[in-house]
Amino acid sequence: MSSSSSSALQQQVTLLELVDRVLNKGVVLTGDITLSVADVDLVYVGLRLLLTSVSTLEQPHGDEK
Amino acid sequence: MNEQSAPPRRAGATGTYVYGVVPSDTTPTVFANVHGVDPKEPVGLVPRGEVAAVGSGVRLDEFGTEALEANLRDPAWLEDKVRAHDSVLAAVLGHATVVPFRFGAIYDSEDHVRAMLAERRDLAEALARLAGAVELGVGAYLDSEQLHARLAAERGIGEGEESGRAYMERRRLERELDDAVAGFAAECSRTAHDRLAAEASDARSNPVRASDDARRLMVLNGAYLVRDEGAFRAAASELASKLAADGVSVEITGPWPPYNFAAEAVE
Question: pTM for this structure?
């Protein structure tokens, strides 16, 4: 694995960890426009799209012989 | 005309986005070089008593209910805002304790933010509980192909001759090997988490992320509330060198604001 692909992988891992923390953890208190349950589903729509758009970088490198 | 529906928001209406809570004596200059979820709006404190919300202005034509609904489907928008949310909280690390809020807490006015702070006495307790600690993430990844091959070699399952009976026997042994790999992964996850938790004030073993790469199977997705980062990292790298021989790599992320430990602190 080249160092550039391994650092790209590292960045992807960090982004996955970041997204998981900011969207799934932390205190939930009700604001005037706190994301409602329906909106949380929307977050997951966005999240899946986001993860799909970055997951290509997590594919194995150098598989081809 | 539906009389029941809320009046449309005026163009240019604003709200306050709240990132989390800090002690009210936190110096606001920690936010001098950080962009909020609206890069044009400064990030500052909304204090009330001994706690203060970390907040910034947002336009309701971007963060209002309908606008949010559309924007949350846009991965580029979401990534940008998630990064901004984290960078604001990360700016506090090393300067003050922070109780992170989940993405998307938006208040109509700073008065409403102060009302929330007045109501939630438990926020001060959460700050006390998290004082002086950061969160570190530890992922352990198993090269299951390598382990599989090694176990096969140890059991003398070779590539060579293949009679009909040998084939059936081999299939049986392959299934045994798969079980052995799964058993190893579970055991590795447990012992690694226990070892790391011993160096932490609190610990979470989160569900592992799925992977279709057999050479990078996640076996541990841990989060640790850490007060002595040096000691924790030393323990983690000792663990990493012990596990390397088994084809397991250990990766640390952070320090993070204590996202994984904030919700339990506020019930």
Answer: 0.85
